[in-house]
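Final report, Chapter 2: Outcomes

The project's central promise was a pipeline that accepts a single protein chain and returns its three-dimensional structure in a standardized token representation, suitable for archiving and comparison. That pipeline is now operational. To close this chapter, we reproduce one record exactly as it appears in the project archive, with the input sequence first and the structure output second.
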Amino acid sequence: MRTALVTGANRGIGLEVARGLGERGFRVLAGARDRARGEEAAEALRHAGHDARAVVLDVADSATVGPAVEAAEGRLDVVVNNAGIYPGGRPSELDLDVAEQAWQVNALGAWRVAQAAIPLMRERGSGRIVNVSSGAGSLASMDASMPAYNVSKAALNAITRVLAAELRGSGILVNAVCPGWVRTDMGGPGAPRSPEEGAASVLWAVDLPDDGPTGGFFRDGRPVPW
């Protein structure tokens, strides 16, 4: 059975992406740092008729990444790197420990998971790695708000580019996707988009054909300026 791993799958966009993958017939590995919250999400997915299993996965902790990928039992078709944090602060005064945490989760976390998943995808000659980014990571429009988040998402876009360049022609497509401003714990109640709408933007990259784009940055299937 086709298998997908979603990081940060216990709520918000991640949970909706996991639901969409289940609707597409994937066995879903729902990654969450907290086991109880992951189990709650997986149970909700199973209740909806989907094949889902919770896996403990803290993308900033390499010790949890290997076991989470091993739970795929040799076949991993899709990775959605959704886990992220959204710290505040001012660029000139930011505690750089906060920047380091954002870097570890939002950028290196996705890189860790991708590195662990790629060997399984190479064996099958096919795969999709979708990095959930943000328009806040676009250098074309970046401002001083949320500097640790903005810079880490720009780094995630760069990681997307270098992985896609190496894997071009392998059957593994790597893209960054902005889900838009979504009503989640991170986005807040005033955001204009629902989690379902944000997830649809991400799932577009999952559904790409083998000759689809790779190394791009998209929102709703349309390119976003780097």
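Archive annotation: The CA atoms of residues 208 and 224 lie 17 Å apart.
This record, like all others produced under the grant, will remain available to the consortium after the project formally closes.
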